[in-house]
């Protein structure tokens, strides 16, 4: 494993592999469209809402690791660099849910490395999923806009067109087979939370990242 994502602090401390097995996480493998659809069907994800993530999204994120404000002091510059690195890391995690309102504002951000929990991630910690949109879990940022995510979507055979500004909320859900039961539980929590809002016009975009991880050699 050349580049480890931050799933949970204990994974890094222990060298990952044994603990990852306890979490039910596997090594990512490249998936065909058929296998992606097979897995999404088992998760009750409509086929017209399934997409893949373009591998170039990773290089795009890494290109954002720059600071153009030359008025910062050395300490402020160091802190800003840390903030940007953390934001970049957040946006390539394997399990994410980003909630954008009709004005393009990110109003809720759920990420695996902020969930905590053992041996399962606690997505509803502090009852954050008892309202829609969910309460803020991960820090909100403006690093990646909803329009940017649209540019890096790879439609599959049955994917419908995604437009922004026509829905009260657009929810981008990053998911993957290699996260095993953590992925299954994550999708279930997100889908149950969606039921709390029956009045809003919502668009769901389920983005599979298995091939994104494999082809970018992030693992």
Tell me what you see in this structure:
It is a single chain. This protein has 219 residues and is of the alpha/beta class. It has one domain (9-215). It contains 8 helices and 6 strands, in the order αααβααββαββαβα. Strands 3-2-5-6-1-4 form a 6-stranded mixed sheet. The longest helix is centred in the middle third of the chain and has 17 residues, at 74-90. The chain is globular, with a radius of gyration of 17 Å. 32% of the residues are buried. The model is unreliable at 1-17 (pLDDT under 50).
Give the tally of β-strands: 6
Number of domains: 1
Structural class: alpha/beta
The pLDDT mean sits at 89
Question: What level of helicity do the residues show?
Answer: 25-40%
Number of H- or I-type helical stretches = 8
Q: Whole-Å distance between the termini?
A: 5 Å
Strand content: 15-25%
pLDDT < 50 stretches: 1-17
Order of strands in the sheet with the most strands? 3-2-5-6-1-4
Give short descriptive properties of this protein.
alpha/beta, 6 strands, 8 helices, 219 residues, single chain, 34% helix, disordered N terminus
């Amino acid at each position: 494993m050349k580049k480890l994502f931050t799933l949970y602090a204990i994974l890094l401390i222990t060298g990952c592999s044994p603990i990852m097995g306890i979490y039910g996480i596997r090594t990512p493998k490249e998936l065909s469209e058929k296998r992606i659809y097979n897995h999404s069907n088992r998760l009750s994800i409509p086929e017209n809402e399934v997409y893949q993530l373009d591998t170039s999204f990773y290089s795009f994120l890494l290109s954002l690791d720059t600071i153009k404000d030359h008025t910062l002091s050395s300490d402020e510059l160091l802190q800003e660099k840390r903030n940007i690195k953390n934001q970049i890391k957040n946006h390539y995690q394997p399990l994410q849910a980003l909630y954008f309102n009709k004005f393009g504002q990110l109003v809720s951000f759920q990420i695996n490395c902020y969930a905590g929990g053992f041996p399962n991630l606690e997505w509803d910690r502090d009852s954050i999923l008892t309202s829609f949109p969910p309460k803020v879990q991960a820090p909100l940022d403006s690093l990646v806009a909803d329009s940017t995510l649209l540019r890096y979507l790879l439609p599959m055979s049955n994917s419908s067109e995604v437009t922004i500004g026509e829905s009260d909320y657009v929810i981008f859900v990053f998911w993957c087979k290699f996260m095993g039961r953590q992925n299954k539980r994550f999708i279930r929590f997100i889908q149950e939370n969606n039921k709390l809002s029956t009045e809003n016009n919502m668009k769901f975009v389920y983005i599979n990242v298995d091939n994104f991880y494999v082809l970018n050699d992030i693992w």
